[in-house]
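Report of the visiting student (M.T.), summer placement. My assignment was to run the structure pipeline on a short list of targets and document each run. The first record concerns 3-oxoacyl-[acyl-carrier protein] reductase.
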Amino acid sequence: MNRLENKIALVTGGGRGIGKAISAKLAENGAEVILTWVSDSKSADETVSAIIKNGGKGRALQLEVSDESSVNAVVADISEKEGRLDILVNNAGINNPTDFDKITSEDWDRILNVNLKGPFLCTQRCLELLKKSKAGSIINIGSVSGQYGGPRTAHYAASKAGLISLGQVAARFGAEWNIRCNTIAAGLIASEMAKAGLKDPAVQKAAESVIMKRFGATSEVADTVVYLASDDSSYITAQTISVNGGLYF
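After the run finished, the structure tokens were exported:
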């Protein structure tokens, strides 16, 4: 069933990990996907090739989400080629688990720039394209870390907590044009970015608290994105949807 037929989606960091699963699932449901990469063009191209091979539509663009000129260039490209945007998925993000007393100001700035400034810039600059949709949907990929902070994720947790608030602001502002915005608070997801972190003793300890007794799959986050991007969720906005297996509630 093509729940997203004729819709145009932008997925930041859409070439690998959770972003790859999101890009593939959106395309599978009929959306034309524009996915972005910052340093790994190979994975992005492979994801686009897989989408096209499966009968979907997709293309890749380079984007540094925390760089204003880079965001403006991508928005201009979409404006010229597609003319509108129906779905924006703010997925690009980074993490570097570090003890609270060892985080440097450079570490802090880097995480906040990508994880919070990036979604702000992308959301703000994509607004005019989303207005043309008449039913736009913004989906932020957040984290359970934004709901409670761990001892080694001060910068990451702060960025993801801020993302929840940013989503609520965007939902209020965008409602006039029927633009919805929701945030997915993902739990322990077995993605490429999380591989190193999953071995962290603090993460292993947290995993013991997952009542479903397993890590989540990237496809489970992607399925939630499809739901929030579709008309099935037309009365859902400004919400934080937890996909965490019962890790936190």
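The helical segments are 17-28, 41-53, 68-81, 105-131, 154-174, 195-198, 201-207, 218-229. The mean pLDDT is 96. I thank the supervising group for their guidance throughout the placement.
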